[in-house]
Amino acid sequence: VSKPSVVGSVFSWVREEWLFKLGALLLLLGFGWFVNTNNWLGASGSTMLGIVVGAALLILGAWRIKEDLHQGNIFLVLGSTVILITVYAARHLHDLFNPITALGISFLSVAFVAFVSVKRRSIGLAIAALVLAALAPLLVGSSVGSAVELFTYLTVVILGVIWVVIVTGWRPLTLLALMMVGFHSLPVLGMYGPSTKST
Q1: Are 82 and 31 in contact (CB under 8 A)?
Q2: How far apart are CA 19 and CA 75, in angstroms?
Q3: Are 58 and 80 in contact (CB under 8 A)?
Q4: Cα dist. 34→21, 44, 97 in Å?
Q5: Is residue 161 exposed (0-12), middle (13-18) or buried (19+ Cβ within 10 Å)?
Q6: What pTM was estimated for this model as a whole?
Q7: Which long-range contacts (CB under 8 A, 24 or more apart) does 181-186 make?
Q8: In CA terms, which of 69, 122, 135, 172 is 20 to 30 Å from 37?
Q9: Contact criterion met (CB below 8 Å) for 157 and 177
């Protein structure tokens, strides 16, 4: 029996519980709009609400994944994404977090998703966690700080990926992690002149 193609696998994934996935997407869009335009709770209130809701979704996902892998995965990714959107809004719209704090909060939510992916043996969830980890510095903004801070964060993510690969044997994560580092390296390499690039 031949394996299904990548496109076929994607369509199969979309078809499975598609109404639940559509609901999660609409909830995410609505929450993103709420956090970015809410004035009645104030900056601190909407940020606190976003982090609490995201954490609750993470806990719900970790609990639900025991019974239903797909629904648990969706709740976990939704919770981590809600936290990333909240941190983005708090950082760029309300200037509540400094870059290191924002990146730290984002990393903790993604690390929790990665931990659950190892515990429940879900490579799809591990890939989603790695994608979210790659997006976190972009959401925090170009003012993450120096290249040292950015690459310290990437080093911590890479060490986490190495741990996941050692424990599970999911080797495709290594290539994805290298692509993530390469993607984040391009702007940093562009800052240097021709004389320093060779060094």
Answers
A1: yes
A2: 14
A3: yes
A4: 20, 14, 19
A5: buried
A6: 0.78
A7: 181/154, 183/134, 184/134, 184/137, 184/150, 184/151, 184/154
A8: 135
A9: yes
Q: What is the pLDDT along the chain (199 residues), one digit of tens a residue?
A: 555 554 555 556 556 666 666 776 677 677 666 666 656 667 788 788 888 988 998 999 999 989 988 888 888 988 999 898 888 888 887 778 888 888 899 999 999 999 999 999 988 889 999 999 999 888 887 545 577 788 888 999 999 999 999 999 989 899 999 999 888 888 777 766 666 655 5
Please give the Cα distance from 162 to 186 (Å, whole number): 22
Q: Which amino acid makes up residue 110? A: V
